């Protein structure tokens, strides 16, 4: 009867497909530095950020130690680690992969509305969407969304379902650092009055202000499908207030600010506004 740990059998099978693997201990954390590598004595950065010249044969440099070599994986040092491991992880970037880690239901809803379909793997709280192609890794690119690729590791949770597709520009764009505060709506988004409709049909300016306030609240209260909510809210505002020329850049800025506070980018806001205008023929 084989005494090979189940996690090692899984790791060897995954490594055979060209995906570098490593063991994770309790808490989904990599194994700490060995005595020789402690306190950066080996010349490489300790633990998860190690990229230095260290050639430690152990498992103590997290993603940088990930390997496909069965001789290394079954060595005495690694086998001891596998016996203490609770799960298998892999280095996506080294395998030419990118994992979009969706950490909750709202993030999953956003991905289904925004990203191209690809292979998905269920996690304890959400899903991993796996694309063919590597990029830099980034945490918290939007609420509940991390990108794991180069210099990072991801838990192996099974083969998943669906066909893996190429890494899209929409995922790469998530890594572009956004301003820490909301950006105002760009000028020229106000809708000019159409010919013959210069007179505002609204009874008082307060009517428009209430409409904008309600739209802000609708966006702010969205718990999922934020991207869709923003578009539909813009569509509703423009449908009601967009044909008389009374909407100003100040009104658009209020809506854009509410949307960006929910994690939408300025570009997404602008696209949603323009798409809503186009649909209404404005």
Index terms:
282 residues, alpha+beta, 34% helix, single chain, four-stranded antiparallel beta sheet, six-stranded mixed beta sheet
Note down, in words, how this protein is organized.
With 282 residues, the protein is α+β, with helices and mostly antiparallel strands. It has helices at 6-15, 70-73, 76-84, 105-114, 169-172, 205-220, 226-241, 249-261, 266-280; strands spanning 21-25, 29-30, 87-90, 97-102, 119-122, 127-132, 138-142, 145-148, 154-155, 165-166. Strands 4, 5, 6, 7, 8 and 10 form a 6-stranded mixed beta sheet that branches. The radius of gyration is 25 Å and the shape is elongated.
Secondary-structure element order, N to C: HEEHHEEHEEEEEEHHHHH
Strand content: 5-15%
**Main pleated-sheet profile:** 6 strands, mixed
Radius of gyration: 25 Å
Mean of residue pLDDT?
83
By DSSP (H or I, 4+ residues per run), the number of helices equals 9
């Amino acid at each position: 009867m084989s005494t090979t740990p189940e996690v090692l059998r899984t790791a060897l099978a995954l490594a055979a497909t060209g995906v570098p693997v490593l063991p994770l201990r309790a808490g989904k954390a990599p194994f700490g530095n060995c005595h020789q590598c402690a306190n950066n004595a080996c010349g490489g950065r300790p633990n998860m950020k190690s990229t230095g010249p260290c050639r430690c044969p152990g498992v103590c440099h997290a993603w940088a130690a990930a390997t496909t070599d069965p001789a290394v994986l079954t060595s005495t040092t690694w086998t001891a680690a596998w016996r203490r491991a609770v799960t298998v992880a892999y280095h996506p970037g080294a395998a030419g992969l990118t994992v979009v880690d969706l950490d909750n239901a709202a993030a999953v809803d956003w991905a289904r509305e925004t990203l191209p379909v690809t292979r998905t793997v269920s996690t304890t709280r959400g899903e991993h969407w796996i694309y063919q192609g590597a990029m830099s890794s980034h945490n918290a690119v939007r609420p509940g969304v991390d990108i794991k690729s180069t210099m990072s590791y991801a838990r192996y949770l099974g083969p998943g379902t669906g066909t893996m597709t190429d890494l899209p520009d929409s995922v790469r764009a998530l890594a572009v650092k956004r301003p820490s505060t909301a950006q105002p709506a760009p000028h020229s988004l106000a809708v000019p009055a159409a010919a013959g409709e210069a007179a505002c049909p609204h009874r008082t300016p307060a009517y428009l202000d209430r409409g904008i306030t309600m739209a802000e609240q609708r966006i702010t209260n969205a718990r999922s499908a934020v991207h869709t909510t923003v578009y539909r809210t813009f569509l509703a505002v423009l449908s009601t207030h967009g044909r008389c020329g009374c909407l100003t850049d100040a009104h658009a800025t209020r809506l854009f600010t509410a949307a960006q506070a929910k994690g939408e980018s300025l570009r997404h806001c602008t696209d949603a506004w323009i798409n809503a205008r186009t649909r209404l023929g404005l």
